[in-house]
Amino acid sequence: MSSSIEELIYLFSRLPGLGPKSSRRIVLHLLKDKNNLLNDSIRYLTNIKKDIKHCICGNIDIQTPCYICRDNKREKNKICVVEEISDLWAIEKTNTFKGNYHVLGGILSAVDGIGPEELNLGVLFEKCKKEGEIKEIILATNSTMEGQLTAQYIAEQLLESGVFVTRLAHGMPIGSELDFIDEGTLSTAFKLRSQFK
Ligand SMILES: [Zn+2]
Questions:
Q1: Where in the chain is the domain with CATH 3.40.1360.10?
Q2: Which of 90, 104, 129, 190 could join 96 via S-S bond, C-beta 3.0 to 4.6 A?
């Protein structure tokens, strides 16, 4: 096998959910359909690299503010805090929440050396400081140990702000990640959210 094909297979195998076997299949598939699939992939990837923008809320879009922050029909005074963009997508799919989001871009982790400075927290705290701007902060970090600790940290920082801080209802499987929970469970956890204590 030529080294450039091997390099491509290795590249795909570094993506989440893909092992060497599925990477080989994808590469073969792309190479077999050079004029359509491969061409389109190159075009879409080139465009997305050029156009992708990071919104202040941590979401991505091809313009800033992102499509959620731009949407005036959404309740701007409610912010759902999630770890990753994939969590935002998971919640959006449930059609339960019509407020705004704030994506942390990670989670506090002593093991990985990730402290509050490494997360997208400054903008969130600033917003909450402004009198009357934010009514509710919904902490929707994963129900993992780190997710709980991160929620705890944010709630503590917001104690003085007067903002109502809630957490998704229990009943979400312990250790579970939002992205992998079925829409019904996530939607219920959202509706039954309660004050963070
Ligand atoms: Zn945004």
A1: 75-195
A2: 190
Model pLDDT for residues 115-139, shown as the tens digit of each residue: 999 999 999 999 999 888 999 999 9
Rounded to two decimals, the pTM is 0.85
Closest CA to 82 of 64, 100, 56: 100
**89 pLDDT above the threshold of 80:** yes
- The Å distance, Cα 145 to ligand 1 centre, comes to 27
Q: Give the distance (Å) from ligand 1 centre to CA of residue 69.
A: 4
Q: Specify the CATH number of the domain 75-195.
A: 3.40.1360.10
65 preceded by a cis bond (ω within 30 of 0): yes
Residue 195: which H helix or E strand, with range?
strand 194-195
- pLDDT attached to residue 71: 97
The mean per-residue pLDDT over the stretch 9-16 comes to: 94
Q: How many CA atoms lie within 13 A of 82 on its CB side?
A: 22
CATH of domain 3-51: 1.10.8.420
Neighbours of ion ligand 1 (CB under 5 A): 55, 57, 59, 65-66, 69
How confident is the model at residue 57, as a pLDDT? 96
